[in-house]
Amino acid sequence: MSDRAVTVRRVTRAEYVQEALAGLDRAAGSGVDPALPLYATTFVVVDLETTGGAPDGGGITEIGAVKVRGGEELGVLATLVNPGVPIPPFITVLTGITQAMLLPAPPIEQVLPSFLEFVTDAVLVAHNAPYDVGFLKAACAKHGYAWPNPRVLDTAALARRVLTRDEVPNRKLGTLAAYFRTATQPTHRALDDAKATVDVLHGLIGRLGGHRVDTVGEAIEFARAVTPTQRRKRHLAEGLPKVPGVYIFRAADDRPLYVGTSGDIATRVRSYFTAAEKRARISEMLAAAERVEAVECAHSLEAEVRELRLIAAHAPPYNRRSKYPERQVWLKLTDEAYPRLSIVRDLAPTDSAYLGPFRSRQAAELAAAGFHDAVPLRQCTHRLSRRTTMPACALAELGRCPAPCEHRITPEEYEHRAATPFRTATRDDPGVVVEALLARIEVLSAAQRYEEAAVARGRLVAVLRAAVRMQRLAALTGIAELAAARPAVRGGWELALVRHGRLAGAGVSPPGVHPRPTIAAIRATAETVLPGHGPVPAATAEETERILSWLERPETRLVEATDGWASPVGGAGRFRDLLAKAENGGSHQLSTERS
Which UniProt keywords apply (predicted)? Predict the structure, then answer.
Protein backbone atom coordinates (compact mmCIF):
# COMPACT_ATOMS: atom_id res chain seq x y z
CA MET A 1 0.00 0.00 0.00
CA SER A 2 1.02 3.62 -0.48
CA ASP A 3 2.93 5.12 2.41
CA ARG A 4 1.50 8.57 1.69
CA ALA A 5 -1.20 9.78 4.11
CA VAL A 6 -4.56 10.14 2.45
CA THR A 7 -7.74 11.45 4.01
CA VAL A 8 -10.83 9.46 3.06
CA ARG A 9 -13.79 11.80 3.18
CA ARG A 10 -17.12 10.58 4.55
CA VAL A 11 -20.39 12.04 3.38
CA THR A 12 -23.61 12.25 5.34
CA ARG A 13 -26.13 11.56 2.58
CA ALA A 14 -24.86 9.46 -0.27
CA GLU A 15 -26.74 7.99 -3.14
CA TYR A 16 -25.77 5.31 -5.59
CA VAL A 17 -27.07 4.96 -9.12
CA GLN A 18 -25.61 2.17 -11.23
CA GLU A 19 -24.12 3.33 -14.49
CA ALA A 20 -22.96 1.75 -17.70
CA LEU A 21 -19.30 1.67 -18.66
CA ALA A 22 -19.53 4.94 -20.60
CA GLY A 23 -20.37 6.82 -17.40
CA LEU A 24 -17.94 5.24 -14.98
CA ASP A 25 -15.20 7.85 -15.31
CA ARG A 26 -17.37 10.86 -16.19
CA ALA A 27 -15.86 14.00 -14.61
CA ALA A 28 -13.16 11.74 -13.21
CA GLY A 29 -11.57 13.19 -10.10
CA SER A 30 -8.56 10.90 -9.73
CA GLY A 31 -6.11 13.54 -10.90
CA VAL A 32 -4.68 11.22 -13.61
CA ASP A 33 -3.90 13.24 -16.72
CA PRO A 34 -5.57 11.59 -19.74
CA ALA A 35 -2.50 12.57 -21.81
CA LEU A 36 -0.23 10.47 -19.56
CA PRO A 37 1.56 7.72 -21.52
CA LEU A 38 0.43 4.21 -20.71
CA TYR A 39 3.91 3.18 -19.57
CA ALA A 40 3.92 5.98 -16.97
CA THR A 41 0.37 5.42 -15.71
CA THR A 42 -0.31 3.85 -12.32
CA PHE A 43 -3.02 1.18 -12.59
CA VAL A 44 -4.87 -0.52 -9.73
CA VAL A 45 -6.30 -3.78 -11.05
CA VAL A 46 -9.18 -4.94 -8.85
CA ASP A 47 -11.39 -7.99 -8.65
CA LEU A 48 -14.28 -8.73 -6.26
CA GLU A 49 -16.01 -11.87 -5.12
CA THR A 50 -19.61 -11.35 -4.00
CA THR A 51 -22.70 -13.16 -2.83
CA GLY A 52 -24.29 -12.45 -6.21
CA GLY A 53 -27.27 -10.22 -6.97
CA ALA A 54 -27.39 -6.50 -7.60
CA PRO A 55 -25.10 -4.00 -5.83
CA ASP A 56 -26.93 -2.69 -2.76
CA GLY A 57 -24.05 -1.59 -0.57
CA GLY A 58 -23.22 -5.08 0.70
CA GLY A 59 -22.61 -8.54 -0.73
CA ILE A 60 -18.81 -8.22 -1.16
CA THR A 61 -16.98 -11.28 0.20
CA GLU A 62 -13.43 -10.66 -1.02
CA ILE A 63 -11.35 -7.83 -2.52
CA GLY A 64 -8.11 -8.33 -4.41
CA ALA A 65 -6.17 -5.41 -5.90
CA VAL A 66 -2.74 -5.08 -7.48
CA LYS A 67 -1.03 -1.72 -8.15
CA VAL A 68 1.29 -1.65 -11.18
CA ARG A 69 3.17 0.92 -13.26
CA GLY A 70 5.41 0.32 -16.25
CA GLY A 71 5.06 -3.43 -15.85
CA GLU A 72 6.31 -3.35 -12.26
CA GLU A 73 4.19 -4.40 -9.29
CA LEU A 74 4.02 -1.61 -6.69
CA GLY A 75 1.66 -3.07 -4.10
CA VAL A 76 -1.00 -5.63 -3.27
CA LEU A 77 -4.21 -5.41 -1.24
CA ALA A 78 -6.16 -8.57 -0.49
CA THR A 79 -8.76 -9.31 2.16
CA LEU A 80 -11.84 -11.37 2.81
CA VAL A 81 -14.92 -9.34 3.73
CA ASN A 82 -17.76 -10.36 6.03
CA PRO A 83 -20.94 -9.52 4.09
CA GLY A 84 -23.16 -9.94 7.16
CA VAL A 85 -25.43 -12.35 5.30
CA PRO A 86 -25.25 -16.12 4.64
CA ILE A 87 -23.23 -17.25 1.61
CA PRO A 88 -25.36 -19.01 -1.03
CA PRO A 89 -24.20 -22.60 -1.58
CA PHE A 90 -23.54 -22.13 -5.28
CA ILE A 91 -21.14 -19.24 -4.46
CA THR A 92 -19.23 -21.52 -2.10
CA VAL A 93 -19.02 -24.16 -4.82
CA LEU A 94 -17.84 -21.57 -7.37
CA THR A 95 -15.27 -19.71 -5.24
CA GLY A 96 -14.44 -22.07 -2.40
CA ILE A 97 -15.23 -19.28 0.10
CA THR A 98 -17.17 -20.69 3.08
CA GLN A 99 -19.20 -19.08 5.82
CA ALA A 100 -16.57 -20.11 8.37
CA MET A 101 -13.86 -18.27 6.41
CA LEU A 102 -15.86 -15.02 6.47
CA LEU A 103 -16.94 -14.94 10.13
CA PRO A 104 -13.63 -13.47 11.43
CA ALA A 105 -13.22 -11.18 8.38
CA PRO A 106 -13.79 -7.39 8.72
CA PRO A 107 -17.01 -5.86 7.36
CA ILE A 108 -16.84 -3.72 4.22
CA GLU A 109 -17.06 -0.42 6.12
CA GLN A 110 -13.74 -1.26 7.80
CA VAL A 111 -12.10 -2.27 4.52
CA LEU A 112 -13.17 0.71 2.42
CA PRO A 113 -10.76 3.33 3.90
CA SER A 114 -7.73 1.18 3.07
CA PHE A 115 -9.02 0.40 -0.40
CA LEU A 116 -9.85 4.02 -1.21
CA GLU A 117 -6.36 5.07 -0.13
CA PHE A 118 -4.88 2.30 -2.29
CA VAL A 119 -6.61 3.56 -5.47
CA THR A 120 -5.72 7.24 -4.95
CA ASP A 121 -4.14 8.85 -8.04
CA ALA A 122 -4.45 5.66 -10.08
CA VAL A 123 -6.55 4.38 -12.97
CA LEU A 124 -8.91 1.63 -11.81
CA VAL A 125 -8.85 -1.50 -13.99
CA ALA A 126 -11.28 -4.43 -13.82
CA HIS A 127 -12.57 -7.17 -16.08
CA ASN A 128 -16.24 -6.28 -16.68
CA ALA A 129 -15.67 -3.06 -14.77
CA PRO A 130 -19.33 -1.98 -14.37
CA TYR A 131 -19.92 -4.99 -12.08
CA ASP A 132 -16.95 -4.47 -9.75
CA VAL A 133 -17.14 -0.67 -9.73
CA GLY A 134 -20.89 -0.87 -9.16
CA PHE A 135 -20.45 -2.88 -5.94
CA LEU A 136 -17.69 -0.55 -4.70
CA LYS A 137 -19.68 2.62 -5.39
CA ALA A 138 -22.77 1.19 -3.73
CA ALA A 139 -20.74 0.24 -0.65
CA CYS A 140 -19.29 3.76 -0.45
CA ALA A 141 -22.73 5.28 -0.77
CA LYS A 142 -24.24 3.03 1.91
CA HIS A 143 -21.48 3.61 4.46
CA GLY A 144 -20.95 7.31 3.89
CA TYR A 145 -17.69 7.37 1.94
CA ALA A 146 -17.23 9.68 -1.04
CA TRP A 147 -16.41 7.68 -4.16
CA PRO A 148 -13.15 9.16 -5.59
CA ASN A 149 -14.45 8.74 -9.13
CA PRO A 150 -11.19 7.45 -10.68
CA ARG A 151 -10.76 6.89 -14.36
CA VAL A 152 -11.83 3.34 -15.22
CA LEU A 153 -10.47 0.99 -17.87
CA ASP A 154 -12.38 -2.21 -18.61
CA THR A 155 -10.18 -5.01 -19.94
CA ALA A 156 -13.21 -6.91 -21.27
CA ALA A 157 -14.29 -3.89 -23.36
CA LEU A 158 -10.70 -3.29 -24.45
CA ALA A 159 -10.38 -6.92 -25.56
CA ARG A 160 -13.52 -6.58 -27.68
CA ARG A 161 -11.83 -3.74 -29.59
CA VAL A 162 -8.34 -5.28 -29.84
CA LEU A 163 -8.87 -9.01 -30.36
CA THR A 164 -10.79 -10.59 -33.22
CA ARG A 165 -13.04 -13.65 -33.09
CA ASP A 166 -10.37 -15.57 -34.96
CA GLU A 167 -7.99 -15.02 -32.05
CA VAL A 168 -10.34 -15.69 -29.11
CA PRO A 169 -13.86 -17.15 -29.17
CA ASN A 170 -14.99 -14.93 -26.31
CA ARG A 171 -13.70 -12.27 -23.93
CA LYS A 172 -13.98 -14.18 -20.65
CA LEU A 173 -11.09 -13.70 -18.26
CA GLY A 174 -10.17 -17.40 -18.41
CA THR A 175 -10.06 -17.32 -22.21
CA LEU A 176 -7.91 -14.17 -22.28
CA ALA A 177 -5.60 -15.55 -19.59
CA ALA A 178 -5.00 -18.66 -21.70
CA TYR A 179 -4.45 -16.55 -24.85
CA PHE A 180 -1.87 -14.28 -23.16
CA ARG A 181 -0.40 -17.17 -21.12
CA THR A 182 -0.65 -15.31 -17.84
CA ALA A 183 1.58 -16.28 -14.91
CA THR A 184 -1.47 -16.65 -12.64
CA GLN A 185 -4.58 -18.44 -13.82
CA PRO A 186 -8.02 -17.14 -12.71
CA THR A 187 -9.57 -19.26 -9.96
CA HIS A 188 -12.67 -17.22 -8.96
CA ARG A 189 -10.66 -15.86 -6.03
CA ALA A 190 -10.16 -12.10 -5.96
CA LEU A 191 -6.38 -11.82 -5.80
CA ASP A 192 -5.71 -14.58 -8.34
CA ASP A 193 -8.20 -13.04 -10.76
CA ALA A 194 -6.71 -9.57 -10.22
CA LYS A 195 -3.19 -10.87 -10.95
CA ALA A 196 -4.44 -12.63 -14.07
CA THR A 197 -6.12 -9.38 -15.15
CA VAL A 198 -2.80 -7.54 -14.72
CA ASP A 199 -1.15 -9.82 -17.27
CA VAL A 200 -4.16 -9.52 -19.59
CA LEU A 201 -3.94 -5.72 -19.29
CA HIS A 202 -0.26 -5.76 -20.24
CA GLY A 203 -0.99 -8.01 -23.19
CA LEU A 204 -3.74 -5.71 -24.42
CA ILE A 205 -1.56 -2.62 -24.00
CA GLY A 206 1.03 -4.30 -26.18
CA ARG A 207 -1.58 -4.51 -28.93
CA LEU A 208 -2.68 -0.88 -28.64
CA GLY A 209 0.40 0.56 -30.35
CA GLY A 210 -0.83 -0.74 -33.68
CA HIS A 211 -4.00 1.29 -33.18
CA ARG A 212 -2.06 4.50 -32.39
CA VAL A 213 -3.24 4.41 -28.78
CA ASP A 214 -0.44 5.66 -26.56
CA THR A 215 -2.07 7.47 -23.61
CA VAL A 216 -4.43 6.40 -20.86
CA GLY A 217 -7.14 8.75 -22.13
CA GLU A 218 -6.89 7.27 -25.61
CA ALA A 219 -7.04 3.75 -24.17
CA ILE A 220 -10.21 4.53 -22.20
CA GLU A 221 -11.86 6.07 -25.25
CA PHE A 222 -10.68 3.22 -27.48
CA ALA A 223 -12.36 0.71 -25.15
CA ARG A 224 -15.68 2.43 -25.55
CA ALA A 225 -18.22 1.71 -28.26
CA VAL A 226 -17.02 4.14 -30.93
CA THR A 227 -18.19 3.62 -34.49
CA PRO A 228 -15.94 2.16 -37.19
CA THR A 229 -15.99 5.57 -38.89
CA GLN A 230 -14.75 7.29 -35.75
CA ARG A 231 -12.00 4.73 -35.31
CA ARG A 232 -10.98 4.94 -38.98
CA LYS A 233 -10.93 8.75 -39.08
CA ARG A 234 -9.42 9.45 -35.66
CA HIS A 235 -6.07 10.28 -37.32
CA LEU A 236 -7.69 13.53 -38.49
CA ALA A 237 -7.28 14.84 -34.93
CA GLU A 238 -3.52 14.37 -34.94
CA GLY A 239 -1.13 17.32 -35.03
CA LEU A 240 -3.68 20.01 -34.17
CA PRO A 241 -2.63 22.86 -31.86
CA LYS A 242 -3.80 23.09 -28.24
CA VAL A 243 -4.75 26.77 -28.58
CA PRO A 244 -7.97 28.80 -28.96
CA GLY A 245 -9.28 28.93 -32.48
CA VAL A 246 -11.56 27.57 -35.17
CA TYR A 247 -11.49 24.09 -36.70
CA ILE A 248 -12.91 23.23 -40.11
CA PHE A 249 -13.77 19.70 -41.23
CA ARG A 250 -13.23 19.60 -45.00
CA ALA A 251 -14.33 17.10 -47.63
CA ALA A 252 -12.12 15.55 -50.31
CA ASP A 253 -12.85 18.51 -52.63
CA ASP A 254 -11.83 20.93 -49.82
CA ARG A 255 -15.44 21.96 -49.26
CA PRO A 256 -16.13 23.00 -45.63
CA LEU A 257 -18.44 20.45 -43.99
CA TYR A 258 -18.52 21.74 -40.42
CA VAL A 259 -17.03 24.72 -38.58
CA GLY A 260 -16.59 24.86 -34.81
CA THR A 261 -14.67 26.77 -32.17
CA SER A 262 -12.90 25.88 -28.95
CA GLY A 263 -10.44 27.16 -26.39
CA ASP A 264 -8.37 24.04 -27.15
CA ILE A 265 -8.65 22.93 -30.78
CA ALA A 266 -6.82 19.63 -30.35
CA THR A 267 -8.88 18.46 -27.37
CA ARG A 268 -12.18 19.48 -28.96
CA VAL A 269 -11.52 17.78 -32.28
CA ARG A 270 -10.43 14.56 -30.51
CA SER A 271 -13.82 14.48 -28.77
CA TYR A 272 -15.52 13.91 -32.15
CA PHE A 273 -13.85 10.50 -32.28
CA THR A 274 -14.97 9.29 -28.83
CA ALA A 275 -18.03 7.44 -27.58
CA ALA A 276 -19.36 10.69 -26.14
CA GLU A 277 -20.14 11.93 -29.67
CA LYS A 278 -23.49 10.38 -30.60
CA ARG A 279 -25.07 12.93 -32.98
CA ALA A 280 -26.20 11.26 -36.20
CA ARG A 281 -25.39 14.26 -38.40
CA ILE A 282 -21.85 14.43 -37.00
CA SER A 283 -21.34 10.73 -37.76
CA GLU A 284 -22.42 11.44 -41.31
CA MET A 285 -20.06 14.42 -41.46
CA LEU A 286 -17.10 12.38 -40.19
CA ALA A 287 -17.67 9.82 -42.92
CA ALA A 288 -17.28 12.54 -45.56
CA ALA A 289 -14.42 14.45 -43.89
CA GLU A 290 -10.87 14.02 -45.20
CA ARG A 291 -8.96 16.61 -43.19
CA VAL A 292 -9.31 19.13 -40.38
CA GLU A 293 -7.99 22.64 -40.76
CA ALA A 294 -7.13 24.71 -37.68
CA VAL A 295 -7.24 28.51 -37.56
CA GLU A 296 -5.38 29.72 -34.47
CA CYS A 297 -6.82 32.77 -32.72
CA ALA A 298 -5.60 35.13 -30.02
CA HIS A 299 -8.43 34.28 -27.64
CA SER A 300 -11.96 32.91 -27.39
CA LEU A 301 -13.71 36.05 -28.65
CA GLU A 302 -11.72 36.13 -31.88
CA ALA A 303 -12.42 32.41 -32.31
CA GLU A 304 -16.17 32.88 -31.87
CA VAL A 305 -16.23 35.76 -34.35
CA ARG A 306 -14.19 33.90 -36.95
CA GLU A 307 -16.49 30.91 -36.58
CA LEU A 308 -19.54 33.08 -37.27
CA ARG A 309 -17.94 34.67 -40.32
CA LEU A 310 -16.84 31.33 -41.77
CA ILE A 311 -20.27 29.79 -41.28
CA ALA A 312 -21.94 32.82 -42.87
CA ALA A 313 -19.50 32.75 -45.81
CA HIS A 314 -19.60 29.02 -46.57
CA ALA A 315 -22.90 27.74 -45.06
CA PRO A 316 -21.39 24.34 -44.15
CA PRO A 317 -24.07 21.63 -44.55
CA TYR A 318 -23.59 20.18 -41.04
CA ASN A 319 -23.78 23.48 -39.14
CA ARG A 320 -27.29 24.31 -38.01
CA ARG A 321 -26.91 27.76 -36.47
CA SER A 322 -25.71 31.11 -37.84
CA LYS A 323 -25.73 29.89 -41.46
CA TYR A 324 -27.89 32.47 -43.19
CA PRO A 325 -27.54 35.94 -41.61
CA GLU A 326 -28.92 37.45 -44.82
CA ARG A 327 -32.32 35.99 -43.95
CA GLN A 328 -32.83 38.49 -41.13
CA VAL A 329 -35.70 40.93 -41.61
CA TRP A 330 -36.68 44.36 -40.34
CA LEU A 331 -39.97 45.94 -39.36
CA LYS A 332 -40.02 49.49 -40.65
CA LEU A 333 -42.42 52.40 -40.86
CA THR A 334 -43.07 53.36 -44.48
CA ASP A 335 -42.49 56.90 -45.77
CA GLU A 336 -46.07 57.90 -46.66
CA ALA A 337 -48.67 60.44 -45.65
CA TYR A 338 -50.24 57.71 -43.52
CA PRO A 339 -47.33 55.34 -42.68
CA ARG A 340 -47.80 51.63 -42.09
CA LEU A 341 -45.56 48.78 -40.94
CA SER A 342 -43.69 46.81 -43.57
CA ILE A 343 -41.39 43.80 -43.27
CA VAL A 344 -38.26 44.23 -45.41
CA ARG A 345 -34.97 42.41 -45.98
CA ASP A 346 -32.74 45.48 -45.98
CA LEU A 347 -32.84 49.02 -44.69
CA ALA A 348 -32.45 51.99 -47.01
CA PRO A 349 -30.33 54.98 -45.94
CA THR A 350 -33.54 57.05 -45.84
CA ASP A 351 -35.32 54.71 -43.40
CA SER A 352 -35.56 56.41 -40.02
CA ALA A 353 -38.10 54.35 -38.06
CA TYR A 354 -37.47 50.62 -37.85
CA LEU A 355 -37.15 47.69 -35.46
CA GLY A 356 -34.91 44.65 -35.74
CA PRO A 357 -33.16 42.72 -36.99
CA PHE A 358 -35.52 39.78 -36.50
CA ARG A 359 -34.24 36.25 -36.99
CA SER A 360 -37.39 35.25 -38.89
CA ARG A 361 -40.36 36.75 -40.64
CA GLN A 362 -42.68 35.10 -38.12
CA ALA A 363 -41.01 37.01 -35.26
CA ALA A 364 -41.39 40.29 -37.15
CA GLU A 365 -45.06 39.59 -37.85
CA LEU A 366 -45.64 38.88 -34.14
CA ALA A 367 -44.07 42.22 -33.18
CA ALA A 368 -46.12 44.01 -35.84
CA ALA A 369 -49.29 42.49 -34.39
CA GLY A 370 -48.23 43.83 -30.98
CA PHE A 371 -47.95 47.37 -32.33
CA HIS A 372 -51.31 47.00 -34.07
CA ASP A 373 -52.83 46.01 -30.72
CA ALA A 374 -51.28 49.00 -28.97
CA VAL A 375 -51.52 51.90 -31.42
CA PRO A 376 -53.93 52.70 -34.31
CA LEU A 377 -51.55 51.98 -37.19
CA ARG A 378 -53.34 51.01 -40.37
CA GLN A 379 -52.89 47.43 -41.56
CA CYS A 380 -53.86 47.72 -45.22
CA THR A 381 -51.16 47.78 -47.89
CA HIS A 382 -52.65 50.51 -50.09
CA ARG A 383 -50.67 53.67 -50.77
CA LEU A 384 -53.00 56.36 -49.45
CA SER A 385 -53.23 59.86 -50.81
CA ARG A 386 -53.74 63.11 -48.95
CA ARG A 387 -56.21 64.19 -51.65
CA THR A 388 -58.33 61.21 -52.69
CA THR A 389 -60.19 58.74 -50.55
CA MET A 390 -61.03 55.07 -50.90
CA PRO A 391 -63.55 52.79 -49.12
CA ALA A 392 -62.67 51.69 -45.60
CA CYS A 393 -62.14 48.06 -44.67
CA ALA A 394 -63.82 46.01 -41.92
CA LEU A 395 -61.18 47.05 -39.37
CA ALA A 396 -62.49 50.60 -39.47
CA GLU A 397 -66.02 49.37 -38.76
CA LEU A 398 -64.68 47.35 -35.79
CA GLY A 399 -62.89 50.37 -34.38
CA ARG A 400 -59.47 48.82 -35.00
CA CYS A 401 -58.36 51.49 -37.53
CA PRO A 402 -58.93 55.29 -37.62
CA ALA A 403 -59.76 54.99 -41.36
CA PRO A 404 -57.17 57.31 -42.90
CA CYS A 405 -58.34 55.94 -46.26
CA GLU A 406 -61.54 57.94 -45.82
CA HIS A 407 -59.68 60.89 -44.30
CA ARG A 408 -61.45 60.47 -40.95
CA ILE A 409 -58.11 61.44 -39.39
CA THR A 410 -55.62 64.07 -40.52
CA PRO A 411 -52.04 63.16 -41.36
CA GLU A 412 -50.85 65.24 -38.38
CA GLU A 413 -53.16 63.50 -35.92
CA TYR A 414 -52.31 60.09 -37.40
CA GLU A 415 -48.62 60.85 -36.95
CA HIS A 416 -49.22 61.83 -33.32
CA ARG A 417 -51.45 58.88 -32.38
CA ALA A 418 -50.02 56.04 -34.49
CA ALA A 419 -46.59 56.71 -36.00
CA THR A 420 -44.86 58.61 -33.19
CA PRO A 421 -45.41 55.86 -30.58
CA PHE A 422 -43.64 53.43 -32.93
CA ARG A 423 -40.74 55.80 -33.54
CA THR A 424 -40.39 56.46 -29.81
CA ALA A 425 -40.67 52.79 -28.86
CA THR A 426 -37.86 51.75 -31.19
CA ARG A 427 -35.41 54.59 -30.55
CA ASP A 428 -36.14 55.55 -26.97
CA ASP A 429 -38.99 54.64 -24.60
CA PRO A 430 -41.49 51.89 -25.50
CA GLY A 431 -43.55 52.71 -22.41
CA VAL A 432 -46.70 53.77 -24.31
CA VAL A 433 -46.78 50.53 -26.30
CA VAL A 434 -45.98 48.38 -23.27
CA GLU A 435 -48.69 50.06 -21.17
CA ALA A 436 -51.29 49.54 -23.90
CA LEU A 437 -50.42 45.85 -24.27
CA LEU A 438 -50.44 45.28 -20.50
CA ALA A 439 -53.87 46.91 -20.31
CA ARG A 440 -55.15 44.60 -23.06
CA ILE A 441 -53.73 41.53 -21.28
CA GLU A 442 -55.40 42.62 -18.03
CA VAL A 443 -58.79 43.08 -19.70
CA LEU A 444 -58.61 39.70 -21.43
CA SER A 445 -57.48 37.95 -18.24
CA ALA A 446 -60.28 39.55 -16.23
CA ALA A 447 -62.76 38.28 -18.80
CA GLN A 448 -61.20 34.80 -18.48
CA ARG A 449 -60.18 34.90 -22.13
CA TYR A 450 -56.85 33.33 -21.25
CA GLU A 451 -55.91 32.06 -24.69
CA GLU A 452 -56.30 35.54 -26.17
CA ALA A 453 -54.35 36.98 -23.24
CA ALA A 454 -51.55 34.50 -23.97
CA VAL A 455 -51.48 35.65 -27.60
CA ALA A 456 -51.22 39.28 -26.44
CA ARG A 457 -48.44 38.29 -24.05
CA GLY A 458 -46.52 36.70 -26.92
CA ARG A 459 -46.83 39.90 -28.92
CA LEU A 460 -45.59 41.93 -25.95
CA VAL A 461 -42.57 39.63 -25.70
CA ALA A 462 -41.81 40.04 -29.41
CA VAL A 463 -41.96 43.86 -29.18
CA LEU A 464 -39.87 44.12 -26.02
CA ARG A 465 -37.31 41.52 -27.07
CA ALA A 466 -36.69 43.30 -30.37
CA ALA A 467 -36.55 46.77 -28.78
CA VAL A 468 -34.14 45.70 -26.03
CA ARG A 469 -31.94 43.94 -28.55
CA MET A 470 -31.81 46.80 -31.05
CA GLN A 471 -31.06 49.49 -28.47
CA ARG A 472 -28.35 47.31 -26.94
CA LEU A 473 -26.75 46.79 -30.36
CA ALA A 474 -27.02 50.46 -31.35
CA ALA A 475 -25.27 51.56 -28.15
CA LEU A 476 -22.12 49.72 -29.22
CA THR A 477 -22.24 50.15 -32.99
CA GLY A 478 -22.42 53.93 -32.57
CA ILE A 479 -18.87 53.92 -31.15
CA ALA A 480 -16.24 54.43 -33.86
CA GLU A 481 -13.55 52.57 -31.91
CA LEU A 482 -13.38 50.84 -28.55
CA ALA A 483 -10.45 48.96 -27.01
CA ALA A 484 -11.01 46.49 -24.17
CA ALA A 485 -8.91 44.04 -22.17
CA ARG A 486 -9.58 40.94 -20.10
CA PRO A 487 -7.09 39.01 -17.94
CA ALA A 488 -5.68 36.01 -19.81
CA VAL A 489 -5.64 32.60 -18.13
CA ARG A 490 -1.85 32.29 -18.32
CA GLY A 491 -1.15 35.92 -17.45
CA GLY A 492 -1.18 39.05 -19.54
CA TRP A 493 -4.29 40.48 -21.17
CA GLU A 494 -6.66 39.40 -23.91
CA LEU A 495 -7.23 42.48 -26.08
CA ALA A 496 -10.00 43.38 -28.52
CA LEU A 497 -10.37 46.38 -30.82
CA VAL A 498 -13.99 46.97 -31.83
CA ARG A 499 -15.11 49.40 -34.53
CA HIS A 500 -18.80 50.08 -35.05
CA GLY A 501 -19.69 46.77 -33.42
CA ARG A 502 -17.28 44.73 -35.55
CA LEU A 503 -14.17 43.00 -34.22
CA ALA A 504 -11.39 44.80 -36.10
CA GLY A 505 -8.39 43.36 -34.27
CA ALA A 506 -7.42 41.00 -31.46
CA GLY A 507 -4.30 40.03 -29.58
CA VAL A 508 -2.75 39.03 -26.26
CA SER A 509 -0.20 41.09 -24.35
CA PRO A 510 2.57 39.06 -22.62
CA PRO A 511 2.58 38.69 -18.82
CA GLY A 512 4.38 41.48 -17.01
CA VAL A 513 4.22 43.83 -20.02
CA HIS A 514 1.96 46.88 -20.20
CA PRO A 515 -0.80 46.17 -22.74
CA ARG A 516 -0.75 49.58 -24.46
CA PRO A 517 2.10 48.78 -26.89
CA THR A 518 0.19 45.65 -27.93
CA ILE A 519 -2.99 47.71 -28.39
CA ALA A 520 -1.04 50.15 -30.56
CA ALA A 521 0.22 47.26 -32.70
CA ILE A 522 -3.31 45.84 -33.03
CA ARG A 523 -4.64 49.25 -34.04
CA ALA A 524 -1.99 49.64 -36.72
CA THR A 525 -2.97 46.38 -38.38
CA ALA A 526 -6.70 46.39 -37.59
CA GLU A 527 -9.44 46.18 -40.19
CA THR A 528 -10.81 49.49 -41.43
CA VAL A 529 -14.51 49.68 -40.62
CA LEU A 530 -16.66 52.44 -42.08
CA PRO A 531 -19.83 53.71 -40.39
CA GLY A 532 -23.16 52.80 -41.90
CA HIS A 533 -26.89 52.95 -41.45
CA GLY A 534 -28.84 51.02 -38.83
CA PRO A 535 -27.99 49.34 -35.52
CA VAL A 536 -25.68 46.76 -37.16
CA PRO A 537 -23.94 48.65 -39.97
CA ALA A 538 -20.67 46.72 -40.12
CA ALA A 539 -21.27 43.21 -38.79
CA THR A 540 -24.01 40.68 -38.22
CA ALA A 541 -26.17 41.14 -35.15
CA GLU A 542 -24.88 37.84 -33.80
CA GLU A 543 -21.24 38.96 -34.03
CA THR A 544 -21.98 42.22 -32.24
CA GLU A 545 -23.88 40.32 -29.54
CA ARG A 546 -20.89 38.00 -29.01
CA ILE A 547 -18.70 41.07 -28.59
CA LEU A 548 -21.20 42.62 -26.18
CA SER A 549 -21.24 39.46 -24.05
CA TRP A 550 -17.43 39.57 -23.88
CA LEU A 551 -17.39 43.27 -23.01
CA GLU A 552 -20.06 42.94 -20.32
CA ARG A 553 -18.21 40.30 -18.30
CA PRO A 554 -17.15 41.59 -14.87
CA GLU A 555 -13.46 40.97 -15.52
CA THR A 556 -13.37 42.93 -18.80
CA ARG A 557 -11.85 46.43 -18.65
CA LEU A 558 -12.57 49.24 -21.11
CA VAL A 559 -9.26 50.81 -22.11
CA GLU A 560 -10.21 53.45 -24.67
CA ALA A 561 -13.31 54.62 -26.53
CA THR A 562 -13.83 57.39 -29.05
CA ASP A 563 -17.41 57.94 -27.90
CA GLY A 564 -19.50 57.33 -24.81
CA TRP A 565 -21.11 53.92 -24.44
CA ALA A 566 -24.64 54.56 -23.22
CA SER A 567 -28.27 53.53 -23.64
CA PRO A 568 -31.38 55.73 -23.24
CA VAL A 569 -32.27 56.31 -19.58
CA GLY A 570 -35.91 55.48 -20.23
CA GLY A 571 -35.13 52.97 -22.94
CA ALA A 572 -36.32 49.44 -23.50
CA GLY A 573 -33.69 48.10 -21.12
CA ARG A 574 -35.73 49.20 -18.13
CA PHE A 575 -38.31 46.54 -19.06
CA ARG A 576 -35.89 43.60 -18.82
CA ASP A 577 -37.56 42.25 -15.67
CA LEU A 578 -40.99 42.52 -17.29
CA LEU A 579 -39.67 40.74 -20.38
CA ALA A 580 -38.31 37.89 -18.24
CA LYS A 581 -41.68 37.51 -16.50
CA ALA A 582 -43.56 37.58 -19.78
CA GLU A 583 -41.27 34.94 -21.28
CA ASN A 584 -41.46 32.59 -18.29
CA GLY A 585 -44.77 33.29 -16.58
CA GLY A 586 -48.49 33.48 -17.22
CA SER A 587 -50.54 36.48 -18.24
CA HIS A 588 -51.90 36.96 -14.71
CA GLN A 589 -48.38 37.78 -13.49
CA LEU A 590 -48.13 40.83 -15.76
CA SER A 591 -51.06 42.84 -14.42
CA THR A 592 -49.00 43.96 -11.43
CA GLU A 593 -46.45 45.58 -13.76
CA ARG A 594 -48.80 48.36 -14.82
CA SER A 595 -47.83 51.70 -13.40
Answer: Exonuclease, Hydrolase, Nuclease
